[in-house]
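Journal club prep, notes for RB
We'll compare a predicted complex against what the paper describes. Inputs for the EPU case:
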Amino acid sequence: MDSLLINGGCRLNGEVSVSGAKNACLPMFAAALLTDQKCVLKNVPDLSDVRFMAEIISALGAEISNTASGVWEIQAKNVSPIAPYDLVRKMRASICLLGPLSARLKKAQVSMPGGCVIGARPVDLHIKGMKALNCNVEIDKGYICVDARRMRGANIYLGGRYGSTVTGTANIIMASVLAVGTTVIENAACEPEITDLCKMLVKMGAIIDGAGSPTITITGVPRLGGVEHSVLPDRIEAGTWLIAALASKGKVLVKGALKRHLGSLLDVLEKANCEIEIRSATSMYVDASKVKIMPIEATTLPYPGLPTDLQAQLCALMTQAKGISIITERIYPERFMHVPELCRMGAEISREGASAIISGGARLSGAPVMASDLRASAALVIAALAAEGQTHISRIYHLDRGYEGIDTKLASLGAKIERVKE
Ligand code: EPU
């Protein structure tokens, strides 16, 4: 397992380009199974999660190839309805095969995803949605088995205790595009990744109204065709770069940071006295050389609220603010695996329920730490940039799942970073 060595205290300087959004392209790969025609996806990030998804798509019988940098071609002339445990267990996002397989083949057997380090991640809403579409759904030997022969459009309220569901919404949209009749999803996820998925589906011939709002209406069509689609930039990666630039007191131009997708983060950063200059609709500039970071109170929420996927990185940043910050998690109340590791670097953070209470201003010092999940790993990188001395982050395969070329991008910004191969 590779690890990263980072020598802190070095300001990031220069410009960085954001890659395509992981959480958009994973369901898009699944969406390519809705047609037997060729689908071409561009601006696909080079990530291990993308390669896992490609492996699964190929195992299901589709032809898939990475024809050029960031370009994947998928043609699913034949598809098997069974997504086996051995493949699905590698990546939870493979649950989003459930909708497309049910729609295309009228049956699906997708291994039920298991536990997850960021907390309970049930799939009851996915199942509720499929049942509402008049599918018969059973859990058998660890598999979600769907009989979709009588699938038809329906009105579905798709909210749970923690609000809307992103991959659940993707699944129900992808199922209903080929269902007879009209489907109305209420409390649909509004995340830009869902809007981008809908754009792709509409180009394939689907009829979808209201994407990006909590009410999405889908009118089923008999078949979909091929498509060429470019994946939107990754707003979480963009936010991570803004936060990393601030923590290192650097000057960084982030290309591919879309203002319209980052409103909640910009608002929180403004409260933290961190000014972000909007250079264009797609780029932002941070000059943190003289910024005095102020403590904040912030709560993660479904989009357009503050993303849970930026919570860990903000915790790392707030170790640099003078005063007490409170960051509350409303999506995954247990998503604080980064806290003990940050404390090993000298951070003063305590947990109270679903909140992290951060007494900022303590000096961080480099230490051996362990990455536990993707965003916790990003938080450790950010802390390492701000710390004195060397930080050794082990298990960085988590980072490679979701940040394309993170070490090369950091090195190009002047970070003292080395990947140690094992
Ligand atoms: N939930 C339920 N029942 C369900 C589904 C979800 O109660 O059937 C709950 C979850 O437990 C959670 C909340 O609803 O409390 C939201 O979960 P959601 O279903 O939206 O999460 P997801 O679709 O499994 C996606 C991203 C995550 C991101 C969340 C929240 C993908 C592939 N994953 O997960 O990304 O944290 O939405 O925005 O899109 C990451 O990139 O690091 C990551 C974990």
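Talking point for the session: The first helix runs from residue 22 to 31.
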